[in-house]
Write a structure and sequence with these properties.
Order of helices and strands: HHHHEEEEH
Helix content: 25-40%
Shape: globular
Number of helices: 5
Strand content: 15-25%
């Protein structure tokens, strides 16, 4: 599917692009560019941080990735259609530990039921 979207724009589906999409499609975390770089660099040492940033910008332009800012000074990225996450959802950020929690798509309702101790 992704390869066709790249070719449809006259772009190659390169190993760095594939590796970055693979990382994003196999996590439920909200990764920074640095997190993604560390995840792909072991298998693809030729991929630099600049390549990760450029690829993320391209993926955003193509409508494949969202960029979020949660107030910690770092952009976070998430695949738009990720089978591991709910469809449309919101994000909650714990003011104590800064953990980012997906809320919505039927998952968050149970997580924040009365008596959970969370506010």
């Amino acid at each position: 599917m992704n390869e066709g979207r790249f070719r449809g724009r006259g772009l190659r589906f390169t190993e760095p692009r594939r590796a970055i999409l693979d990382v994003l499609s196999t996590t439920t975390d909200h990764l920074s560019a640095e997190d993604i770089y560390l995840a792909v660099h072991g298998d693809y040492p030729g991929i630099g941080l600049t390549t990760v940033y450029r690829t993320l910008e391209l993926l955003i332009e193509m409508g494949l990735v969202y960029r979020f800012q949660f107030g910690d000074g770092r952009n976070r990225y998430e695949l738009i259609q990720n089978r591991l996450k709910p469809g449309h959802h919101h994000h909650l950020v714990c003011i104590n530990c800064k953990k980012i929690i997906d809320y919505g798509g039927g998952r968050g309702r149970n997580r924040f039921s009365s008596g959970s101790g969370r506010k």
